[in-house]
């Protein structure tokens, strides 16, 4: 690629458009606490994603505009230029066929949640893997399969929706539930009698990143450099702690 072609490509990048427009458009669902939640009365968004993208806009020298979207249309909004990027999305290869991804800055994974007064009983995953422990999950979910695979000796209680498994925990009808670190953060903030068990590690990690237009390498490079800088500065760790998110250490 010649220098002239490279310069033209950079000039046509979404990065240049964002700076010239003065606005970073971010697609967000507003329904994934504590990553992104929308107050319907004020239309104000808050959460881990909101703090991150607000910081990115600040460093770009622009304001941020949140564009409502759904999980079904999350990729399409990037592809059709309804927004410049999405908030956090789990990495999967179907999405990667259609849109680009930023570098990873967080991992979704699964953790046990227990009554706080039982937390000292469980320091390892193996502490849950015995017949004195009841673990409740919803039939047909990833969580049910994790319990079957990882904790075969526990007593497994599977329920049908729309019952909520955390209610069994609140009512002391189960010893533990298995859920994502993201949902677990919401549960323990909402119900102070619950706690995330301090086990040795989380299970089934999935990378979390932002969706970006896959053909715009200039914009992707900028976002990735920004992520690397903010990782080095401890920014993502601070925001994760603010929202009570359990961070997975990848060794």
What labels would you give this structure?
251 residues, alpha/beta, 3-stranded parallel β-sheet, 14 strands, disordered N terminus
Percent range for β-strand residues: 25-35%
For the secondary structure, the number of strands is 14
Measured on Cα atoms, how large is the radius of gyration?
Answer: 20 Å
The rounded distance between the terminal residues' Cα atoms is: 38 Å
Report mean pLDDT, rounded to a whole number: 91
Determine the fraction of residues in helical runs and give it as a percent range.
Answer: 25-40%
Largest sheet: 8 strands, mixed
Specify the number of helices: 10
Shape: elongated
How would you spell out the order of helices and strands?
HHEEEEHEHEEHEEEHEHEHEEHH
Q: What structural category characterises the helix and strand content?
A: alpha/beta
Unreliable runs: 1-9
Structure description:
The protein has 251 residues and is α/β, with parallel strands linked by helices. Helices cover 36% and strands 26% of the residues. It has ten helices and 14 strands. It has helices at 3-11, 14-21, 48-60, 74-79, 93-98, 142-150, 165-170, 181-190, 217-232, 235-242; strands spanning 23-28, 31-32, 36-39, 44-46, 63-68, 85-86, 88-90, 100-101, 106-115, 134-138, 155-159, 176-180, 194-196, 203-212. Strands 7, 8, 9, 10, 11, 12, 13 and 14 form an eight-stranded mixed β-sheet that branches. It has a three-stranded parallel β-sheet with strand order 5-1-6. Strand 3 (36-39) and strand 4 (44-46) form a beta hairpin. The protein is elongated and about 60 Å long. The relative contact order is 0.18. The model is unreliable at 1-9 (pLDDT under 50).
